[in-house]
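Suppose you are handed a protein chain with no further information: no name, no annotation, nothing but its sequence. What can you learn? This example shows the usual starting point.
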Amino acid sequence: MKFTNEEIANYYDTTQNHYEKWWNLKDGLALHYGVWDKSTKNFTEALLNTNKVLMELCEITETDYVLDAGCGVGGSSFYIHQNSGAKVVGITLSESQLKYANNLAKEKKVDDKVSFAIMDYCNTSFESNSFDVVWACESVSSAVDKVEFIKEAYRVLKKGGRLILSDCFITSNKPNDPNKWIYKWGQTWGVSNLVTVNFFETNLKQTGFSSVTSLDYTEKVRKTAFRMYLASILGFLPSELYNFFNPKVSRFAKTHFKSGYYQYKALQEKLWDYNIVFATK
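A reasonable first move is to predict its three-dimensional structure. Written in structure tokens, the prediction is:
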């Protein structure tokens, strides 16, 4: 099943409270996996560490103009500006995320440098050759057609511009997945389909990107994946009770807690991995 933009927006609008409760949203401002290393002290630090790793690999500086494609509540956008001085535009499909991010920008008094808009990252209204960096932290997995995102990123980037992203990728085009862990995960996560990192790299090159590099960070997010699994187990009873007494709850709000269980089962069977991909126009 493929999700429309409206359904993806609905997923984020109706599950944001879950991220606030289970994912330290107010502290980490992140809906993504946290990267752990030997110096990481806690979960919020792991979430911020994901931004740190992407930013350092991309070498973002004060002179860069950055598009945060699929910005969530703006956490990465704020991190980029605060740690480099770069100007950032974040785009999302979710009205709830937009409101949250705009309020934070005003609260942080950076709304002249960090702005947000409702927009499809596969079909933006930005002029060609506008950005120095396109940043996509676990957002491209939501795109039904990943090639459309690649082509749009290439269009809006300046010559020499960089694409940096982190995301989940399936390990095989035809995975041996009798329990349908990947499918069930996607259906409860608002994700239509995952692709292999090889597919993604190939299409980057065919579109015109060069210096295409991918780094496997699977082991560094495993602790986060296990946290998601525990959250799904702990949330099972209260979620089912809530669903019973509130039968009209939205489809994603009803099943979202199961995604943590499915993604970890799939990880245990090595059906997906987590990669950071970098490319230059």
